[in-house]
């Protein structure tokens, strides 16, 4: 990061602008909005800058430029159409230790001005570090469309309520604002006038204050599906939940870039489990959820894939329900759909598969074997989770169930990640495919005629050169 982002308070501070044309006008407009005392040095002014000068909104010197005209300025903009003059301004500002910006000349800038989304008092600044101003403007357009025009009014109303809300304990106060200022509420409030926004926020605070008299507020637990391990496949609600969390109990397979979506001051607890390596027992996870929720905290139980697809989410909800803890479930992209999509394998296909079965290859001790003959078949797809270490056993059971040894199989490891690998073969190749899987990488078997399509339809990374078993 070459440039340090910072917002400056320029109220009643002198800012010198050298130049009086269109380029200078754009800078002056923003400086006036920020309350700066603008000092313009230029032989001539364009129509708009002259209008500001005549209205007493800025000071103008038509004298020839000298370095002394920078004295007392907090910032300097060189915005004339004379490159030599602009560079002289840069040298003069440098000698006076005044931050200077030579417009459209990055090598002669001590600071650069960003593209701005203005929802005063909310201001979003976007910079490409001078590499691509067009891209920065494009990003600004994307953000403009995301933020309601009334966002500034909501922010101002929240500011007016800050002193009243300060009576709440610090953590309780943060939780109150987190719950209140969600996207749905902001969108609704942004359509109201100032008085209605104030009334709505005041009502919410009064309810919170009444609840506070009852003692420690009840916390809650949000079960969040982290998907296959790509931050760009997180749902919007999952990102919101991570931003609200006081505590995050996360699986070991959840990568760092997803954890970075969370609040910086959240407490992170690794409760992850991999096959054969249980870092934390399920009972221990249950206890942690209840313990932190009873302290009034927002707890996110962050699980790879989807909480309700071989994620033991049902057991966790049953435990929370038994202990009267409020909860919410945020679905995630499960491994079957993620692996199939990134391997170019359609899980259903009108010509090849009319049914899909998700099953785990890891059975509980003493558990009953599934009816393999009913689950798998020539015209259906079978997706087997956690089956890599049981590949030989799975092969034998599928063959015993009457499936053809040559029925296509794909093994997808690290699905949807940059390290994804896809191995193609058939049921008789299951152990050989498993032997080629990287050690410790999560893997999913996809069995059925659709698996063969991945060799033709692969599009992601190494999948285009999918490997076949001998």
TrEMBL record:
| Active-site residues annotated for this sequence | 251 (proton acceptor), 273 (proton donor)
One BP term from GO: methylation
Q: Locate the Sirohaem synthase dimerisation domain: which residues?
A: 151-205
Q: Which reaction does it catalyse?
A: precorrin-2 + NAD(+) = sirohydrochlorin + NADH + 2 H(+)
Family statement drawn from the similarity comment of this UniProt entry = Belongs to the precorrin methyltransferase family.
The UniProt entry, under PROSITE patterns, shows: SUMT_1 (PS00839), SUMT_2 (PS00840)
Ranges for domain Tetrapyrrole methylase? 220-430
- Siroheme synthase central domain location: 119-145
Output the InterPro entries linked to this UniProt entry.
4pyrrol_Mease, 4pyrrol_Methylase_sf, 4pyrrole_Mease_sub1, 4pyrrole_Mease_sub2, CobA/CysG_C, NAD(P)-bd_dom_sf, Siro_Cobalamin_biosynth, Sirohaem_synt_dimer_dom_sf
Superkingdom of origin: Bacteria
Q: In which pathway does it act?
A: Cofactor biosynthesis; adenosylcobalamin biosynthesis; precorrin-2 from uroporphyrinogen III: step 1/1; Porphyrin-containing compound metabolism; siroheme biosynthesis; precorrin-2 from uroporphyrinogen III: step 1/1; Porphyrin-containing compound metabolism; siroheme biosynthesis; sirohydrochlorin from precorrin-2: step 1/1
Its EC number is 2.1.1.107
This protein's UniProt keywords: Cobalamin biosynthesis, Lyase, Methyltransferase, Multifunctional enzyme, NAD, Oxidoreductase, Porphyrin biosynthesis, S-adenosyl-L-methionine, Transferase
Name the gene that codes for it: cobA
Which Gene Ontology terms cover its molecular function?
NAD binding; precorrin-2 dehydrogenase activity; sirohydrochlorin ferrochelatase activity; uroporphyrin-III C-methyltransferase activity
The protein, known as: Uroporphyrinogen-III C-methyltransferase
- Tell me yes or no: is Membrane among this UniProt entry's keywords: no
Q: Name one Pfam family in it.
A: NAD_binding_7
Which enzyme type, at the first EC level? transferase
């Amino acid at each position: 990061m070459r440039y340090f982002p910072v917002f400056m308070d320029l109220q009643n501070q002198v800012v010198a602008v050298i130049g009086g044309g269109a380029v200078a006008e754009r800078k002056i407009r923003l400086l006036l909005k920020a309350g700066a005392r603008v000092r313009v040095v230029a032989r001539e002014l364009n129509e708009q800058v002259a209008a500001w000068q005549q209205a007493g909104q800025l000071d103008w010197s038509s004298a020839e430029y000298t370095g002394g005209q920078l004295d007392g300025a907090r910032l300097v903009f060189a915005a004339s159409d004379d490159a030599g003059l602009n560079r002289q301004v840069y040298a003069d500002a440098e000698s006076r230790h005044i931050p200077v910006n030579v417009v459209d000349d990055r090598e002669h800038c001590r600071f650069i001005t960003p593209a701005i989304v203005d929802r005063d008092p909310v201001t979003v600044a976007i910079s490409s570090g001078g590499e691509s101003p067009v891209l920065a403007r494009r990003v600004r357009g994307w953000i403009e469309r995301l933020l309601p025009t009334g966002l500034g009014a909501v922010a101002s109303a929240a500011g007016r309520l800050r002193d009243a809300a300060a009576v709440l304990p610090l953590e309780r106060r943060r939780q109150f604002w987190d719950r209140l200022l969600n996207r749905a509420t902001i969108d609704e409030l942004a359509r109201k006038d100032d008085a209605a926004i104030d009334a709505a926020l005041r009502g919410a605070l009064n309810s919170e204050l009444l609840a506070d008299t009852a003692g420690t507020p009840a916390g809650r637990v949000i079960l969040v599906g982290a998907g296959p391990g790509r931050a760009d496949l997180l749902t919007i609600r999952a990102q919101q939940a991570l931003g609200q969390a006081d505590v995050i109990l996360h699986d070991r397979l959840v990568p760092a870039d997803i954890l970075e979506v969370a609040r910086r001051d959240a407490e992170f607890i690794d409760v992850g489990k991999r096959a054969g390596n249980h870092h934390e027992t399920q009972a221990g996870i249950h206890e942690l959820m209840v313990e932190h929720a009873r302290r009034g905290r927002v707890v996110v139980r962050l699980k790879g894939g989807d909480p309700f697809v071989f994620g033991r989410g049902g057991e966790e909800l049953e435990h929370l329900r038994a202990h009267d803890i409020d909860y919410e479930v945020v679905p995630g992209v499960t491994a079957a759909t993620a692996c199939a999509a990134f391997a170019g394998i359609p899980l259903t296909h009108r010509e090849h598969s009319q049914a899909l079965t998700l099953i785990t290859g890891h059975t509980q001790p003493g558990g009953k074997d599934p009816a393999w003959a009913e689950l798998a078949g020539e015209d259906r797809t079978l997706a087997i989770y956690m089956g890599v270490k049981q590949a030989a056993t799975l092969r034998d059971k599928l063959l015993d169930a009457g499936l053809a040894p040559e029925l296509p199989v794909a093994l997808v490891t690290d699905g949807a990640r940059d390290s994804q690998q896809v191995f193609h073969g058939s049921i008789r190749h299951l152990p050989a495919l498993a032997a080629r899987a990287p050690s410790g990488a999560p893997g999913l078997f996809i069995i059925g005629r659709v698996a063969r399509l991945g060799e033709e339809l692969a599009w992601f990374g190494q999948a285009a050169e999918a490997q076949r078993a001998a």
